[in-house]
Amino acid sequence: MSKPLYLGIATSTGDGRAGGQARTDDGLLDLSLAIPKEMGGPGGATNPEQLFAAGWASCFHSALKAVAAQQHTRVSDSAVVAEVQVHATAEGGFSLSAALHAELSGVDQVTADKLVEAAHAICPYSNATRGNIPVTVDATVA
C-alpha cells in the first residue's frame, strides 16, 4: 500500500450504536448514537449506517465532480443520495447493502451514466465495498 494521504480517527464510547457516543479526534464530529426505531431501538439520534451513507455520498459526489472535470464535462448541478441498508443474516448476524443515486443536470443520460460508472471506479468507499456488499449505482438527469 502507498503512504496514506490522510488519516481519519473516530472513537466510539459508551454502548456503541445503542446509546453511545462517536467523536472524531479533532472534535469536529461529536454525536450521540441510537438504534433506529425500525430495528427495535428508541431512535432519536444518528446511527452508523447514516454516518456511512453521509460519508459515501460525499465522497462519491467528489469523485463524480473529479471525473467530470477530467473528462472536460460541465455538470451544471449535482447531488448524490446514498442508501445504506441493514439486513439480518440466517446466522443471526447482520449485513449491509447500498444504493447510490446520482442526480445531474447539464448532461444527457448516456454521459451521466458514464460519469457515475467512472466515479464508482475511483471512489474510495466504492473500492472498499466492491465485492463485499451488494451495491447499485444509477444516474438521473434532472
Topology:
Layout: E1 10-13, E2 21-24, E3 30-32, H1 48-70, E4 77-88, E5 94-105, H2 109-122, H3 124-129, E6 135-141
Parallel strand pairs: 5-6
Antiparallel strand pairs: 1-2, 2-3, 4-5
Q: Name the helix and strand elements from N-terminus to C-terminus, one letter apiece.
A: EEEHEEHHE
Helix count, DSSP H or I runs of 4 or more residues: 3
What's the helical proportion of residues? 25-40%
Biggest β-sheet description:
3 strands, antiparallel
Shape descriptor reads globular
**Radius of gyration, in angstroms, nearest whole number:** 17 Å
Structural class: alpha+beta
The order of strands across the largest sheet is 1-2-3
- Low-pLDDT parts are none
Query: Gap between N and C termini, in Å?
Result: 39 Å
Mean pLDDT, to the nearest integer, reads: 97
Tell me what portion of residues adopts beta-strand conformation: 25-35%
Number of strands: 6
